[in-house]
Amino acid sequence: MSQPRRTSRRRAWTVLTLPALLCVLAACSGGPAPGDGADAPVPIAAPTPSGPPGTLFDNFHYSGPDDPSLTANGWEVRNGAGSPGIKDTWSSAGAGFPSDTTAQGGRVLQLRASTDGTKQGTRQVEVQSTGADVFTGTYAARIHLSDKPTSGRNGDHVVQTFFPISPSDSSANYSELDHEYLPNGGWGTAGPRLDTVSWYKADPPDRVSHTFKQRLEGWHIMMITAVNGKVIYSLDGKELFTSSGKYVPREKMDIHFSNWFIDLPFTGGSRTWDMKVNWVYYKAGEAVSQAEVQKTVDGFYSAGTNHINTVPKS
Questions:
Q1: Which among 152, 187, 259, 306 is placed 20 to 30 Å from 73, CA to CA?
Q2: Positive or negative CA dihedral for 229, 234, 239, 243?
């Protein structure tokens, strides 16, 4: 990848530290006995998270970007300003949660980017976790990548991404780990290509990267394992790239999914590009194999668990 992933990354939202899904509420004890202050308020036990410790899982069973459960479960959709790509064109309108018969559980997060070749007619989309609670460990997501637009003429330099990143580009301990798919290439390079990139600093850019040149239309499991002083990127169980030394996470991050345009190579006619996310999984501090990730995810689906977050808060 020949350019920084972001320049002057400026969020158009306020990051909130939101409670994780609280699956089991501790029951209150029975009411006070007669004569023992029956009118006094009954203390309510604090809710407690349930599930495997240090685990985040979500299969995106939400009604839309304004669903209160999306916010309550620690996600938000970007709106408005900032980079990368076509600056200040981020819109929540591109985020949806449709049914999909090709997805495990039949539901996805859909990220739809659109353009007519002008800035005014361009909409980019990004969904991120909030709270900056993920750090070392295993990241995994089942993602559907697109080699061609859902509608309109092909040829856009679109970037479909899954990455954990520091809340601020100016952080002294800046950290970012990228899976970026460019079906038509960009920055003067040909596609298709999957760039895996480990960052030490955003500005000036200091990173190491690897390019995997293969057409990847369809569903894939993308993983990033960051433990014991090294970061391993894999795709469908195949290791692609390893970074170490200073190119490892140095602080807690948020998880992002985004679909955006590097530039606008041509005008004339609208086109839309879809990226889909079936589920996302994170295990704090541990290296987990793809087989074990899938086994755990299958267990969540079997139990009817759509979201769980037992990752310790910052």
A1: 259
A2: negative
